[in-house]
Specification:
Blueprint: H1 9-22, H2 27-32, H3 38-48, H4 57-69, H5 73-86, H6 92-104, H7 108-117, H8 123-135, H9 139-147, H10 155-168, H11 171-184, H12 190-202, H13 206-215, H14 221-233, H15 237-250, H16 257-270, H17 273-284, H18 293-305, H19 309-318, H20 324-336, H21 340-352, H22 359-372, H23 375-387, H24 395-407, H25 411-419, H26 427-440, H27 446-455, H28 461-473, H29 477-489, E1 498-503, E2 506-511, E3 517-519
Antiparallel strand pairs: 1-2, 2-3
Helix pairs in contact: 1-3, 3-4, 4-5, 4-6, 5-6, 6-7, 6-8, 7-8, 8-9, 8-10, 9-10, 10-11, 10-12, 12-13, 12-14, 13-14, 14-15, 14-16, 15-16, 16-17, 16-18, 18-19, 18-20, 19-20, 20-21, 20-22, 21-22, 22-23, 22-24, 23-24, 24-25, 24-26, 25-26, 26-27, 26-28, 28-29
């Protein structure tokens, strides 16, 4: 927020002198209040409130707005008290301003008290309390308030309750509100449309999101960014790239930092290096963008996952501010590209710069130790997570440890580690041990792994297919068929492989069934 320049102290002194002399209601001063910076508005209010006849309900309204802009809760409480003492509290405009002030500060307790005291809430009152409840995570209560409304909601009300439905992933309720808006509201409202688009995306209903997006008569940068991000997070990365390219070619909106972060995520998932490089070059032409923070981290992640670790390091070195995500991303990138020792050296440099690691950092470190065969170093990192940094290991960390033991051929140690876990091992962990057994030709553990997989959670079709293929490679056909029968009983079917290649900056997909290429993006 850009604050207005403060008014000279001499001017405030003149106003004060005028108040001391006249004691008349300051109609002209109330007109001045909105044009002042928030600091000066509060200072003028402090002068005016000293004289009982020098202020009215407009004075309190402007002062509340100023205190909200300054995020000064203590001042809002003070003004609230003066409003009650002066007898202006019954004014609906002041009540709504107070309600909004508390909502802005996420003080939902005071906001609910103010709302409860309003004898006849108008649409502004209802919208403020619904918005406040939704923002503070009280989604069910927000929807409940919406259902209790005795006035017709406006677009802002509907956008707020759609946000609450989004928080609960209440698809049916959100769709009902969408239907109500189509029946009851005239004209186009981009804020409500964007709220609905975000709702469908976050609820995983991408078909409805795409339908709404295509039907929108006007789409701003938020609309495009929401669609690109939703498709990328939903695994439809090719479509995310297509939408981004349509945005660039159509010129309906100019992409912002969030748009680029989302499309770079799609490029990372596709392994589309050329497309990612084109996005990077486009960013370089935008003088209003700085490759730092989220944008810089997204570029590091894209180059790392596309195996261009040199460019990832270059972007990392050029960052002005390297945060925890920056360090974790480059460490993970080094690990996945086979530079385990470099990853460990970067971790030491991270500590030297005073940046504390998080759980993602340790996934990169354990992966680096695994790929480099540094079992002892990996054990040190795993122990330091909880003992030194107070980070409780999660399932992914345990999977990295099992993979590390497995790569080193320490299969019995890996199984003992699994048995000693504080939680029940899931499918990926047993899958990591299974893969290690296959690599090192250890058939003795197959039976134990098979029985463990039957009761484990999150067992993927790929893990069961690996077990069946492993049995088959050892000529244990009955066992292989038993695993296949179990897959059929569970209703699991292995999907055909699918790969992407880039031809002249175009991303093309090839499935393993008919070998045909499917168009997935255009330059």
């Amino acid at each position: 927020m850009r604050l207005k320049p403060p008014i000279p102290t001499c001017t405030l002194n003149q106003i004060h002198a005028h108040l001391l002399k006249t004691h008349k209601p300051p109609l002209t001063f109330n007109a001045v209040l909105p044009s002042l910076s928030p600091q000066d508005a509060v200072l003028l209010y402090n002068q005016m409130v000293l004289h009982p006849t020098s202020h009215n309900h407009f004075t309190f309204t402007h002062a509340l707005v100023a205190s909200s802009l300054l995020h000064a809760l203590h001042k809002t409480l003070e003004i609230h008290a003066h409003v009650i003492k002066s007898g202006h509290y019954s004014d609906i405009f002041i009540q709504n301003t107070l309600l909004h002030s508390y909502v802005v500060k996420n003080n939902i307790v005071f906001a609910k008290r103010v709302f409860k005291s309003i004898s006849s809430p108008d649409v502004v009152s209802w919208t403020s309390i619904i918005s406040g409840l939704s923002k503070c995570g009280f989604h069910e209560e927000a929807i409940g308030k919406f259902l209790c409304m005795d006035v017709k909601p406006n677009t802002s009300t509907l956008a707020s309750v759609v946000s609450a439905c989004c928080g609960l992933r209440a698809v049916r309720s959100g769709k009902a509100i969408h239907g109500y808006s189509l029946r009851s509201l005239d004209g186009v409202n981009i804020i409500l449309d964007n709220a609905l688009l975000d709702f469908y995306v976050k609820c995983g209903n991408l078909a409805s999101a795409k339908f709404l997006f295509m039907k929108m008569s006007w789409r701003d940068v938020i609309s495009w960014t929401t669609m690109v991000g939703g498709l990328a997070q939903g695994g439809l990365c090719e479509e995310a790239v297509e939408v981004f390219q349509a945005m660039i070619n159509g010129g309906e909106a100019v992409p912002n930092e969030a748009t680029f972060v989302n499309v770079l995520s799609a490029c990372s998932s596709l392994g589309a290096l050329s497309l990612g490089q084109w996005v990077h070059s486009y960013i370089s032409t935008r003088h209003d963008l700085v490759v730092d923070g989220n944008l810089g981290n997204a570029l590091i992640n894209m180059y790392s996952k596309c195996s261009d670790i040199c460019m990832a390091v270059q972007v990392f070195n050029e960052l002005t501010h390297k945060d925890k995500i920056s360090w974790s991303t480059i460490i993970g990138g080094m690990a996945m590209n086979g530079h385990g020792m470099h990853a460990l050296q970067l971790f030491s440099l991270m500590l030297v710069h005073g940046v504390s690691p998080d759980d993602v950092t340790f996934i990169g470190l354990l992966s680096a130790s695994s790929h480099a065969g540094l079992v002892k170093q990996g054990l040190i990192f795993f122990k330091a997570m909880n003992d030194v940094y107070g980070i409780a290991p999660q399932m992914k960390h345990y999977a990295c440890m099992v993979d590390m033991y497995g790569r080193a051929g320490l299969l019995e140690e890996a199984e003992a580690f699994i048995r000693g876990m504080p939680m029940e091992a899931d499918g990926p962990i047993w899958g990591a041990l299974l893969n290690a057994c296959k690599v090192h030709g250890n058939e003795k553990m197959f039976v134990q792994i098979y029985h463990s997989l039957r009761s484990a959670k999150g067992v993927s079709i790929g893990t069961l297919a690996l077990l069946s293929n492993t049995y088959a490679s050892c000529n244990r056909w009955d066992d292989a068929n038993n695993v296949r029968d179990m897959m059929r009983d569970l209703g699991l079917k292995k999907m055909p492989g699918y790969s992407w290649i880039e031809v002249d900056a175009m991303v093309n997909g090839c499935d393993g069934v008919n070998g045909s290429f499917a168009y997935a993006g255009k330059s």
